[in-house]
Design a protein that fits this description.
The termini are far apart. The chain is built from twelve helices and no strands. The radius of gyration is 27 Å and the shape is elongated. Helix 6 (124-158) packs antiparallel against helix 7 and helix 7 packs across helix 8 (196-212). The longest helix is centred in the middle third of the chain and has 35 residues, at 124-158. By secondary structure, the protein is mostly helical.
């Protein structure tokens, strides 16, 4: 006859402990980009820097825009759109979006909270993509609302037979897109440098130096062509072309394309460095 089966060994202490381990009632679900977007939206709306920078941006664009509109006449808009007054506020307001773009990434490195962020979301590319999307949408909506408001008030103040019928909704889109892309470029620079003051300084140099240098480069014939290109594609001239405050030409489309290419290159560098470097 076959021997009877051996009795099972008694459970070890480790097995008994695992059997009595706590099981969380919260279901475990796979994370996705929506979770990262919700996290970044919570961050950007809860920090004081967002309220201050966007508040000052609105004050500059709307305040300076309405002040400029109050000092114009209907005949001034015979060949210019009603959103031109917003251009004067955007020349200063763009610095606010640049500052906020840098702080979206660099502030977490300064406080050390980036370690917590990457622990909660080990997919670093997802975190940076969520930051870019949340910031871009926020900056674009705020900019478009400010430019649209200035355009509507200006048209109501200066409408008349002397004013032209120039379409101006395109300037709302292009102007908002340009300053928002500048902010995204600042976000990428902040991610690469990981230092708020250094990134803001670098972005201010990128915006201001091309606007100042042409005055010196165009003195000499050998650097005149460089000065002309720099003068055509600096941020202030680009906004002027978009709003028709200068010879419109293509309406600033070529300037937008150049900024889009530069921003895409900076984002590619930010994503590459994010995966290679430690926090």
């Amino acid at each position: 006859m076959a021997p009877p089966p051996a009795a099972p060994a008694p459970p070890s202490a480790w097995q008994q402990a695992m059997a009595n381990a706590y099981t969380s009632p919260i279901p475990v679900t796979k994370t996705h980009i929506g979770n990262a977007l919700a996290s970044e939206w919570t961050k950007i709306k809860s920090v004081r820097s967002t309220m201050w920078t966007l508040g000052i941006f609105l004050a500059l664009v709307v305040g300076i825009g309405l002040l400029a509109a109050a000092n114009t006449q209907p005949r001034n808009y015979a060949d210019m759109p009603f959103t031109v007054p917003a251009f004067f506020g955007l020349m200063l307001g763009q610095i606010c979006l640049i500052t906020l773009g840098v702080l979206v990434t660099s502030s977490e490195y300064g406080t050390g909270m980036i370690r917590t962020t990457f622990t909660a979301s080990p997919q670093r590319h997802r975190v940076l993509a969520a930051k870019v999307l949340v910031f871009f949408v926020t900056a674009f909506v705020v900019s478009a609302c400010a430019i649209l408001f200035v355009g509507l008030v200006t048209s109501s103040m200066n409408s008349g037979p002397e004013a032209g019928d120039i379409p101006w909704m395109g300037t709302v889109f292009k102007g908002s897109l340009y300053v928002s892309l500048l902010g995204v470029l600042a976000l990428a620079v902040g991610s690469m440098l990981r230092h708020s003051a250094g990134a803001i300084t670098a972005m201010l140099g990128l915006v201001l130096v091309p606007a100042i240098m042409p005055a010196f480069l165009m003195i000499w014939e050998s650097t005149q062509s460089l000065g002309e290109k720099m003068n055509d594609y600096n941020a202030i001239t680009a906004l002027a072309k978009i709003f028709g405050a200068e010879d419109a030409g293509t309406g600033g489309s070529s300037q937008l394309v150049v900024l889009l290419v530069v921003t895409a290159a900076a984002l590619a560098g930010a994503f590459a460095l994010l995966e290679k470097r430690d926090v």
